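Bench log. Compound arrived from synthesis this morning; before running ITC I wanted a structural hypothesis for how zinc ion sits in the protein. Inputs:
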Amino acid sequence: MLLSLFGQPDPDSTLVNAARGGDVRAFDALVHRYHGRVRQFVRSRLDSAIDSDDVIQDVFVSAWKELPGFRGRSRFKTWLFGIALHRCADAWRKHQRLRALLGEMEVPFDSWPEDTWGDNPEGWPAAVIERTELRRHLGRLSEAERQVLELYYYAELNMPEISALLEINLSTLKYRFYQAHRNLRRHLEEPVESPVGAPASRARK
Amino acid sequence: MKCRHWQQTLFLHAHGQLGGFPRLLVDSHLQGCDNCRAQWARWVVERERLQRALQPAPGSDREASASIQQVAAAIRAEAMVNPASPKVSPRGAPDSARGRQRVTLILGAALAALAFAATASVVEPGLRQAGILPRSKFSGVSSPFGIGGKDCGDVGPPGLTVPAPAGMFGTVTNIGRAGNRKPTGTGPAAAAPVCDQCPNCARKQAGGPTAAVPAVMECKHPGSGTTAPAAAPQAVPVTTGN
Ligand SMILES: [Zn+2]
């Protein structure tokens, strides 16, 4: 079993090694394992005007193509979310350029609706309302703070992994992590400005 | 330290990001401070709420499955277009895996060498006694790789000199050229029998600088009759290749 830089055994090592040998089915298993989290992560970072499924596909195809370069210094999951982070940034830049070409002004960030539940929050289960509410407030944080929380909660990476991925000092990261939670708490305590389901105003750089 | 100074530390503790001494400090403070304990508990509740709420959304199986199928199709298309895509290149194996392979190879080679050496040391004297192998000036525990020298004191090409006082294998005493070798055996080898014909033995008799002549060696000169019993454990230089 591979040991990552942080001494953790990588639970994906068997599948990763098989996929490196060209085993497409082993890679399918990795796609099944991480698709949900990657999808959640990509959707949390992108405007609903961007086709998230295209970006998700791009993430996994890139991972497949770049697998020979994966050295096992991190867990496969950490490496995969590093690719997801870059693909989201690429998609966002492309989207912004397109908007500029079309002459659109800065428009509010339109987050992805909850799967299955549609745009109308009436009749949503309490858990879905809470999730939507949290996602909306997450969208009010700064990009740097939101990025850390998304990698921690959606991708379930630990602090040293996030620190290595974002190339920031661990102490700085921990302080940013703390500040993000404090600001999120502050937003959650503020009186509700718009009903759940309405898009939070946010623009990505 | 006032309670307000504990806030970030309490948060990190609630997220399992503290270890060692800082964690013990917080633990002991929490035991005696109701206010900080309440703050800590609030961070724990918020963390659990976020973890629960930000899980991949349930009830999205149909959409997710369509997306997975789209990914799988794209991977297959990529594998068709570029079948060499993810192949294991010699330098491409994960570092830890390559390291393990290397260690396994080295260990395997070392074990094979040891097994060969042991077999050679047991079989070789018998073969020489039986006349199957030509008689050598070395008998008993000799160079397992069949590297012989030109004279009594010359134990072979430069390499590792390993005295074996309690069997075949001992500590590496010297690494370097043959001329620099200084066998450190202090056992019976120091009082090894010498002949009066070979130059090395002659130097030894004259009190000049010589390499210690192991007792298990027998002098090749006829009539010297100085063969030590092979069974006695002796300090024998064993030269291995680099
Ligand atoms: Zn206190």
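What the model suggests: Strands of chain B lie at 159-162, 174-176, 238-240. The pocket of zinc ion is lined by residues B 3, 6, 29, 33, 35-36 (CB under 6 Å).
ITC booked for Thursday regardless.
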